[in-house]
Structure formats: C-alpha cells, structure tokens
C-alpha cells in the first residue's frame, strides 16, 4: 500500500469513520478495489499519477457502476495533505446513499382508504 492508502486505511479501519465498516484490497469481479463499503455500495480509490486519464480506470469504473457501485477517486497528494476533507466527502456520500428516499405524498388524502375513494367517485 502507498503512504496515502495507509493513511486513509488508518481512518477507515476498525469503524473509526462514524462506525462505518470498510474493507481494503477487496476483489470484485475481475478487479481488486482499494477500499469498499458494502452497505453504501461505495468504492474508494487512492490514485497516483499513473492513473491520470487512464482508459483502464474508465473501463473499470463503468463496470463497477453497472453493478450499482459508486466510485470515488482521490489523488494520493489530496489524501496526504487534506485527509479530513477526503473523509468528509466519503462520509457525506455514505449518508447520501443510505438516506431513505422521501415518501411521496398520498394522493388519497389523510385517513381515507383507497376503497373509499374508488367507490366515492363511481
């Protein structure tokens, strides 16, 4: 693991990030991802300069997204110099992906059953 990956892992492991559970170097299909949160279907990649504009990474990200995962990529220097900001982004994304969708307002009105409405307008 790179220095950036080690630093990020220190913060992610053992539920240090608000009790969220991450795995590192986890295989998914033909790939091994740096870090993964199964519950939020979130993958975190710590990238060095070799990933700049990588066509391989684009193919990999497309494959992962097609299976319902979101991929967050951070540059190594970004992790090393601003780990708190990186952690905020990760935690915000987890919260967003875990928050339930708002329930639509009922078209039936409060306290009225569908049967009552269906027969009311016949």
From TrEMBL:
Keyword vocabulary terms for this entry: Endonuclease, Hydrolase, Nuclease
Pfam families named in the record: DUF559
Keyword check for Nuclease: yes
The DUF559 domain, residue ranges: 1-92
GO MF annotation terms: endonuclease activity
InterPro entries: DUF559, Endonuclease_DUF559_bact, Restrct_endonuc-II-like
Keyword Nuclease: yes
CDD domains named among the record's database cross-references: Endonuclease_DUF559
UniProt-listed PANTHER family: BLL0828 PROTEIN (PTHR38590:SF1)
Name this polypeptide is given: Endonuclease domain-containing protein
Species in which this protein is naturally found: Paraburkholderia sacchari
